[in-house]
Amino acid sequence: YDFDFESYAKSQINRPDADLRMEYDHIYLLERSKLTRRLIEAEEELEAAIRDARAIGCYWYDYDGTSQCVDHPDDGYRESEEREIAAETDRDRGRIEQWILGQEGPFEDATSISTPHVDEWPIELKKPWDSISMIAEGAERRRIDR
User: pLDDT tens-digit profile of 4-19?
Assistant: First the structure.
């Protein structure tokens, strides 16, 4: 609002600021009211189009993150559709495991045990309660401060 008002005020030369503010407030309110009305109409048209599409059996997956849960009649799968999808799913576990093993990537097999890489950083503790960051000096200190 302030940025838009400042731009409007700069376009109006030699006018009292109080008059400008009141005039701009009115313009701003009218513009926002028109935009709000257009948005409401567009949403109503979208809902009508969705209802019409579903009435003729056209279903699609929304890209905007709908939950696909049955919390609203127009949202997500029906339970019968979910059962049909699950029944058609290929559950050949051996084939799935073979596919997973054939994949290459930075991941490891969950059954493998590997020793984690640990930086060796010898340090002599001056006091048993001192932390490494309190007593580090030189390169070690710069490494901590980064």
Answer: 888 877 778 777 777 7
Amino acid present at 95: R
Identity of the amino acid at 131: S
3-state secondary structure of 52: helix
Tokens 């890489």 sit at which residue?
Answer: 117
Contact residues for 9 (Cβ-Cβ < 8 A; gap 6+): 17, 20, 24
Instruction: With CA atoms as reference, report the closest residue to 50 among 75, 79, 81.
Output: 75
Q: How far is CA 95 from the centre of its chain?
A: 34
pLDDT tens digits, 127-137 = 555 565 566 67
Determine the Cα–Cα distance for residues 23 and 16; give it in Å rounded to an integer: 11
**Cα distances (angstroms) measured from residue 81 to each of 40, 77, 88, 89:** 32, 6, 11, 13
DSSP string, 86-138: HHHS---HHHHHHHHHH--SS---TT---PPP--------SSTT--HHHH--T
Domain boundaries, the chain: 1-58
Q: How far apart are CA 17 and CA 5, in angstroms?
A: 11
Residue pair 70/78 in contact (Cβ under 8 Å)? The answer is yes
User: What is the number of alpha carbons within 13 Å of residue 29 lying toward its C-beta?
Assistant: 6
